[in-house]
């Protein structure tokens, strides 16, 4: 079984608000540093994304890939790789747990990446950790800054 990397962060918002941001793939390029494009290809019976094409640029890992999403209630979403140019596997999940009486959310992000090209395990784990840490920090900033979220990185730099 492949090793995975995981990390958690606490966000000052209810789980439903956090999951709303996670499920809004159209806005991923605004708050995730690595996702440059996101396109929902298919939806499930509840109107949630079932397959999403993502253009990823995470330093050592650059790829155009499609992921299949599985939603477990309102507190967990997991994904697995459907197709990719560079990756053999990209499996992960967000798990949300209410804290502070429901006013906050602990988000745990787990990720397993396997690339088609040879890469040292240490470098692969570092890439996973960078992806996770940036995603969690971006998610926290996006949720806590309100419904319109932070300005896109390029606009923020202009100020």
User: Largest sheet, described in full?
Assistant: 7 strands, antiparallel
Q: Counting H and I runs of at least 4 residues, what is the number of helices?
A: 4
Determine Rg (CA atoms, Å).
15 Å
> What is the typical, i.e. mean, pLDDT?
84
Find the count of extended strands (DSSP E, 2+ residues): 7
Strand and helix order = EHHEEEEEEHH
Indicate the low-confidence ranges by residue numbers.
150-159
Written description of the protein model:
The chain is an alpha+beta fold and 159 residues long. The chain is 27% helix and 45% strand. It has 4 helices and 7 strands, in the order βααββββββαα. The protein has helices spanning 15-23, 28-31, 121-144, 153-158; strands at residues 5-11, 35-43, 49-58, 61-72, 76-84, 87-99, 104-115. Strands 1-7-6-5-4-3-2 form a 7-stranded antiparallel sheet. Helix 1 (15-23) packs across helix 3 (121-144). It is globular and about 45 Å long. Residues 150-159 have low confidence and may be disordered.
